[in-house]
Amino acid sequence: MSPLFDHLSQLYTTGHNGTPPELFGDQRLAGITEFTPAAVLAAITEREGEPGILLLHRPSNMRSHPGQIAFPGGKIDPGESPVEAALREAHEELGISPGDVRVIGTSDVYRTHSGFEITPVLGIVPPDIEIIPNPTEVAQWFEAPLGHVLDPENHVGQWVEWEGSMRAYYEIVWQQHQIWGVTAALLVNLSRRLKWHG
Q1: How far apart are CA 54 and CA 22, in angstroms?
Q2: 3-194: which CATH architecture?
Q3: pLDDT tens for residues 58-112?
Q4: How far apart are CA 168 and CA 158, in angstroms?
Q5: Structural domain boundaries of the chain?
Q6: Helices assigned H by DSSP within the chain
Q7: Distance of CA 150 to the CA centre of its chain
Q8: What are phi and psi of 141, to 5 degrees?
Q9: DSSP-derived secondary structure letter, 194
Q10: Which DSSP helix (H) or strand (E) runs through 43?
């Protein structure tokens, strides 16, 4: 068995069965009544010592979220579960075979002002997994240390003016990568559920 898989599974079970933490949500949902289901894969590499998490930069010419850092993922097709959708999208975008992912479970749905409700799927992948990015959807991919992105000390609260009022968001910086928006919010909520740093 995998010590990392066992450890994360225990943190996952404890975090999702205990008292719910205070989760961060999008404050711009007023008036939105219908959401499109989507799913993303939080793929954690099974490295000795310091596991990582796989993230990608969207191409700058994409219609939605150009240039932003994201998890592999997208809309859930009719008849798909969130896990099936996340695995399919990770295969389409990064070439990750579904058979190489050991799924731990799904976490908190995050609703966005753009009308999506996103289910994060937590899974373990081999440390030497071959990544084959799809250039139409991925400009660059990288692996950030899991301990860094889940450390609350690295979750920097920011404010921006939006439609005449101030809204809060989080930013997580690792090397030259600036993670913010939905991706940072998902990491913040995963951090609060898993309590990776105890």
Answers
A1: 25
A2: Alpha-Beta Complex (3.90)
A3: 997 656 555 689 999 999 999 999 999 999 999 999 999 999 999 999 999 999 9
A4: 6
A5: 3-194
A6: 3-17, 82-94, 146-149, 181-194
A7: 11
A8: -125, 155
A9: H
A10: strand 36-45
